[in-house]
Specification:
Layout: E1 6-9, E2 12-18, H1 20-38, E3 44-49, H2 53-60, E4 68-78, E5 81-90, E6 100-108, H3 112-122, E7 128-136, E8 149-153, E9 159-160, E10 176-180
Parallel strand pairs: 3-4, 3-6, 6-7, 7-8
Antiparallel strand pairs: 1-2, 2-10, 4-5, 9-10
This protein binds 1-O-pyrophosphono-5-O-phosphono-alpha-D-ribofuranose and guanine.
Residues 77, 107, 109, 158-160, 164-165 line the site of guanine.
Length: 183
Amino acid sequence: MKLIERVLIKDKWFKLLIPEEDLIEGIERVAKQINEDLKGKTPLFIGILNGAFMFASELIGRFNSPCEVTFIRLKSYEGIERGEKMKEIQSLTENIEDRHIVVIEDTIDTGHTINYLLKLLRKKNPASIKIATLLFKPNAIQFNINPVYVVKEISNEFVIGFGADYDEQGRNYRSIYQVVNEK
Ligand SMILES: O=P(O)(O)OC[C@H]1O[C@H](OP(=O)(O)OP(=O)(O)O)[C@H](O)[C@@H]1O
Ligand SMILES: Nc1nc2[nH]cnc2c(=O)[nH]1
């Protein structure tokens, strides 16, 4: 199948950074690790909406033992800028005490979103919390957080695709695209 090389979303062009094939290869590697680490533990996967919907689907669909799935909806970005306030649009309703949790993120950038969720989860005494992220920007993170399951590390460019948006669009593309500043 021919890959889309460039995408125009509203006022910005994006160019191909990580093709779908490489993402799927990385997701399979991470899924294998999770299968080994959490076999027999009936983990609860918590996807962070909206961005994580596609990665959550691809990852959880490769978990081979009983598990549970839920979502929380957090938002702090408008366009390509992070806003000051974290909006909790849909909260967690499950009792997670003594549960093995896998949090699923599409992108860990500054780490504000994942840090907010980790603080919230730790108060509820889970047995363990592990983080799975499709993309990790190690040079942007502002917290001492180590995601154990990382599909791809990238530098600090703003990206879209595979769930990640620019101004709510672009989530549908199955590869990752980075913003380009020239036309
Ligand atoms: O590490 P951070 O700097 O906090 O950035 C990462 C977060 O930003 C995006 O969410 P956004 O707030 O855009 O909401 P969305 O998931 O609905 O796109 C992305 O999905 C992550 O959740
Ligand atoms: N879509 C998208 N959202 C983000 N939130 C933080 N960084 C990013 C990014 O690179 N892309």
